[in-house]
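Morning!

This is the sequence you dropped in the shared folder:
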Amino acid sequence: MQTTKIAIMGGGNLGKAIALGLLSTGKYQPDHIIVTRRRVQEIEDLTEKGVRVTSDNQEAVRASELILLCVQPKQLKQLLQEIKEHLSADHHVLVSTITGISIEEIEAAVGKKFPIIRAMPNTAIAIRESMTCLATRHARREQMEQVESIFDIMGRTLIIEEELIAAATVLGASGIAFCLRYIRALAQGGIQMGFHADEAQAIAVQTCRGAATLILEGGQHPEMEIDKVTTPQGCTIAGLNEMEHNGLSSAVIKGVVASHKKIANIKK
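The structure's back. Tokens below.
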């Protein structure tokens, strides 16, 4: 059982998902996890699982060692102003999941050099299937390893340079929505062919899960697996070609790039 006390500042969708992910591992005592939110009534269900919830950010910092910043970008300045006097470089590690805010900006707001790690997980962290990218500047190796170990048990992690965090946000975090939209479209096609909605969704979901697992476990390029399904003059290649003629790959790439451009303006 881990003894690290963790404060999650911001009990929105991601903050709550992280809390649930930590609980699901069975390696953290529920009362070692604190989640803050202005309207605590919206996260009261966490108390039923033994998690501490509060609207007092200063109290949460004083009672923790690892602090996860999960608020909206526009809320960060006020939050850091509120807690900075209670932060100790010898006792705390800050982990920011906030889009568009650099380590340098956080450090400037805190007013001192501090172990800060940027983490970009996605909402699948609630079921321990997140893809989380990590970047740091001043965190010690053991601090980085501690944070990495936390996210490792809730999915997969990759340590990257900070300048790639924005791209990781689009590919890994926004990517959840992109994948879900494809699943929805696949299921809608199934309904048009005659399946009931629940049947079409079940087939689409399991098919996408199988496709992802083939790549994860086999390590092949996607085209290698595609070639195994496409036979000459077959129905699969006909469908693929029709999708490409209508811009499938181009639309996905353009969507990813558009999301990446938006991050630059997300604080404005």
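Headline: The CA atoms of residues 165 and 212 lie 23 Å apart.

More detail when I'm at my desk.
O.
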